[in-house]
Amino acid sequence: MNPYMADQLDPIRSEDDVEEILRLAVRHDLAPGSNLRDRLQSSADELGISPEVLAMAEQEWAAKKNADLELANEAGERKRYMRIQFAEFIQHLGLYAVINGFLFWLDISKDGRINWAYWPLMGWGIAVALHAISLVARGESEEKDFQKWRRKQRRYRG
User: Is the distance from CB of 90 to CB of 135 less than 8 angstroms?
Assistant: First the structure.
C-alpha cells in the first residue's frame, strides 16, 4: 500500500467517519435529475441491505426527522410566546408610567402637594412588580400557559 494512502486513511476511526465518507461519495456521484429513491435502493443493494431492513430504516429516519421538526417548531413557538409575554409586560409598564404620571400631575396641579396620587402608584406598582416576577420566575403554570396559548394559536390558524 502506498504510504501516502495509509496517511490519508489513518483518520478513519469510527462508524461515523465511514458514514460521512459514504455520504460525501454519494453526493459527488449523484447525476443531476437522478431519482433519489432509485439511488437509495441501488446503494442498499450494493451494501447487501434487504428491502425490508431498508424500509424499516427509512421509517425510523422519517420518524426522527418528524420529531426533530416538531422540536424545532416548538422551540420557535416558545420564543414567540416569550416575546409576546415580554411585549405585554412592556405595555403594562408603559401604561403604568403614563397613567400614574398623569395622576401625579393632576394631584400636584390642584394645590402643589401630593395628596392621593401615591395610592394608585403603589397599588398598581405591586401589580407591575408581580407581572415582572412572573416573567422571571417560571414554574409549572408557565408551561400550562404556553400549551394553552399554543392550542389557541393553532385554532386561529385553522
Answer: no
Q: What's the DSSP call for residue 14?
A: S
Q: At what angle do helices 51-111 and 118-136 cross, to 10 degrees?
A: 170
Phi/psi region, residue 49 (left: phi>0; alpha: psi -120 to 50; beta: rest), is beta
Angle (nearest 5°) at CA 56 between 50 and 61: 125
Tell me the CA distances in angstroms from 52 to 18, 45, 55, 145, one per residue in order: 23, 12, 5, 44
Cell of 46: 450494493
pLDDT in tens, 25-72: 777 766 666 677 777 887 788 888 888 988 898 898 888 998 888 889
For residue range 75-105, list pLDDT tens digits in order: 999 999 999 999 999 999 999 999 999 999 9
For residues 43 and 26, the answer to whether their CB atoms sit within 8 Å is: yes
